[in-house]
């Protein structure tokens, strides 16, 4: 467990999980600085640095030190508007963010993927998530934690119709397929960040629920 003040890099701080995670990070006594680039301004905080703009353009401007990086980026095919635009966010932008975090000497990357991620999947969404995971593994992180939540539950600032329709059923599905509250996922991410295991770890949704209780 970390005892020295931590410098954190967070992508996706305005999203459903990112909002919960940011709140937790800013209230952790061991966190000295959170660098959270975002498209719209975040509420001010003494330990928060918040460059505003498009993430891809902001990446070269980000500076260290960074110890741990969290990537909570994600969209849907419907929101993105095309397969290509979805891949640009959920794969290409995630990989670019991770590469920049590594340049800033981050040693642990925690990234939100999805249940069923598989680079050979016949389902486009799962295939892109799987390709993203493989690309991150190729970056040779000292510590890489990939979390694969089921359907995320919670109130989004920009509601997703499909998620709203599926949420009641998702709460009753068995095992790793049961939906997971975003606040629970955020707690699990922080607990995983405190672990110092080396190499790649993949954490499925049922284990995330347990860790985030």
TrEMBL record:
It comes from the Bacteria. InterPro entries: Him1/Fmp52, NAD(P)-bd_dom_sf. This is Nucleoside-diphosphate sugar epimerase. It comes from Pseudomonas mangrovi.
């Amino acid at each position: 467990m970390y005892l020295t003040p931590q410098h954190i890099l967070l992508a996706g701080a305005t999203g459903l999980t990112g909002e919960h995670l940011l709140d937790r990070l800013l209230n952790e006594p061991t966190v000295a600085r959170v660098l959270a680039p975002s498209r719209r301004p975040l509420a001010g905080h003494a330990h928060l640095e918040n460059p505003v703009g498009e993430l891809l353009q902001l990446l070269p401007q980000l500076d260290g030190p960074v110890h741990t990086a969290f990537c909570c980026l994600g969209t849907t095919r419907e929101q993105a508007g095309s397969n290509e635009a979805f891949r640009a966010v959920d794969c290409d932008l995630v990989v670019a963010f991770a590469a920049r975090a590594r340049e800033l000497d981050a040693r642990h990357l925690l990234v939100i993927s999805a249940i069923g991620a598989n680079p050979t999947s016949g389902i486009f969404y799962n295939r892109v998530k799987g390709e993203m995971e493989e690309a991150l593994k190729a970056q040779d992180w000292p510590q890489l934690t990939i979390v694969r939540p089921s359907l995320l539950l919670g109130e989004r600032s920009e509601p997703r119709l499909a998620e709203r329709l599926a949420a009641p059923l998702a709460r009753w599905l068995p095992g790793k397929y049961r939906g997971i509250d975003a606040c629970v996922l955020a707690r699990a991410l922080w607990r995983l960040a405190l672990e110092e295991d080396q190499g790649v770890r993949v954490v499925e949704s049922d284990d995330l629920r347990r860790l985030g209780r």
